[in-house]
Amino acid sequence: MKKILLTFTMALVSAAASAQDLKGTTIYDRIGHGQDSIDVLGSLSLYQESFKSQEYLEALEPWEFVFQKAPLSMIRVYTDGAWMFETLIQKETDAAKKKEYFDKLMKIYDQRLANLDALNSFATPKTTSTKGNIICRKAYDYYYFCPSMDSETAYKMFKEGINDMGPNTEAFVLYAFMDCSYRRYMANKTNIDIRQEFIQDYMLTNDICDRLLEQAKEYPSETIPADPESEDSTKWVEQIKLHPEAEKIITAYQPTQTQANDLFVSSGAADCEALERIYSAQVEANKTNLEYLNAVLAILNKFECDKSNIYYTAADYAYQINKTPQAAIGKASRLLKEDDVEGAIKYFDEAIELETDEAKKAKYSYIVAALMFKQGKISQCRQYCRKSLQFNPSNGDAYLLQASCIARMATGDHLQKSYYYCLATDYCNRAKAVDPATAAKANRQAATYASYYYPKSEAFFAGIKAGQKVNVAGETTTLRLR
Length: 482
Prior knowledge:
Low-confidence stretches: 1-24
Distance between the termini: 69 Å
Shape: globular
Number of strands: 4
Mean pLDDT: 86
Order of helices and strands: HHHHHHHHHHHEEHHHHHHHHHHHHEE
């Protein structure tokens, strides 16, 4: 026992010595002196030994002694405690016991918040926390573990934590927040205020995910060259290996965004008729409020309600006040509804010109490109795709749309058509290289194009080999065979 205590004391002292900002505290300021320190060290050792072996019931008594007697001993007292009670709540079948464990779990967060500055004073960069982060985790545990959970209480906690964390909000918290907001809305579907809050919550969640997925593009990916001679057909095309940090972000936030989208779509909150009813009176009352009008335009545009009268009305009011990009887009939408494509494009071009944010310029250019594609105007579509990439070189969707254009351009005999599909595959690979978030979509498109490659059996007799450089649509590509 003495050996364990000595080892544990040395570890604590070492951790304290390496802390960035002790602000005058020492390890014994945090665990007490004399017999107090011996009791705390003994309990720390006992609870951690049980914790390591996942004997959480045995760990509870010594852990609680440390939690009460030395709340500043270690940050792990809080993180270990939360983990233990979360696990015990899930395993417990007795309702009274569940409630007891839950109350102690909430107390952990409350005490950590009360002691946050002191705990951060000796924390390492990795263990330093913020008020928002702790509130988010408390909200998460309250939402999923409270025996008598009140969605309004959980919602307010989530909002407070996420407002503090902003784009640093963890993915699992964002999903829980959206789930909470969704259930709150579904229980109060006739409440217009709650409906608007649900819409705003979705917009916020989607915006945070978008920003983080954009950040993932900043990490360099590794390109593995194609090997057309390989017996493994998966190696015939260039492969993109994501940077570990990019993969970590995408793995966390892309599913969260998808799940949030699914919840929102299933809720019916974005029903255009309902949104028009909600905003019609408010737009009229705020027809001189440019900030409000632009917010309404953004929401209606996001949910593809840009063909409603209220959208056009808001756009007209906004355009009269100031020729903003959002207002110009609204004017363009009205003209599209009237089948005036040329007139619409003028307003889209105006929006691109007025916009100062390069990312939004890229987005508007891409919208026009997609419109051109639907109109069958392939040359103009590619022109606006290239413009989008000038503003945002990591816009993978612009490369994928060009791939679709090239595939649609395929003409000639079977061999000549295959050149187009090989070039389209090149654009899919470029999309993955600049925008890891498009990897799944790019792989699906490339797999479709691969089914149109020239067959090996015919190539052999014609003396054609994979890996040859061929020219098509004014560009050079590598011939691939199937």
